[in-house]
Inverse folding.
C-alpha cells in the first residue's frame, strides 16, 4: 500500500470553510472518479498559533494507481480552485510512502 501525504494551511477564520470544501466537494470529486486502487482518505487538522494546518493521507494499492489518479507527474498536488480560494498556502507536491506495517488498537 502507498500513502500519499499532502499539507495545506489556512487562517483560523477559514479553517471550517476549508474543511467543508474538502469534505463536500474535493473528496467526493475524487471518489466520483472511481479510481482503481484508491482505498480512502484521512484528514488531519492541527491548530497552530497563527494558522491551521491540514494533512490529507490518501491510500492506494500501488504507485500505478496514483499515476492513474494524477498522471505521469504523480507528485504534483491536486488542489481544486474552490480549495485554493480558502487556503493560505499548500504543498506543491505530495509525498509518497510505502506502508510497511500498520497496527491498530482501536
Amino acid at each position: 500500500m502507498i500513502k500519499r501525504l499532502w499539507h495545506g494551511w489556512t487562517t483560523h477564520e477559514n479553517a471550517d470553510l476549508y474543511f467543508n470544501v474538502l469534505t463536500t466537494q474535493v473528496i467526493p470529486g475524487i471518489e466520483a472518479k472511481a479510481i482503481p486502487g484508491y482505498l480512502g482518505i484521512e484528514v488531519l487538522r492541527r491548530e497552530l498559533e497563527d494558522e491551521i494546518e491540514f494533512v490529507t493521507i490518501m491510500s492506494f494499492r500501488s504507485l500505478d494507481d496514483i499515476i492513474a489518479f494524477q498522471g505521469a507527474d504523480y507528485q504534483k498536488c491536486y488542489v481544486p480552485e474552490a480549495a485554493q480560494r480558502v487556503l493560505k498556502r499548500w504543498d506543491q507536491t505530495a509525498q509518497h510512502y510505502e506502508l510497511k506495517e500498520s497496527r491498530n488498537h482501536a
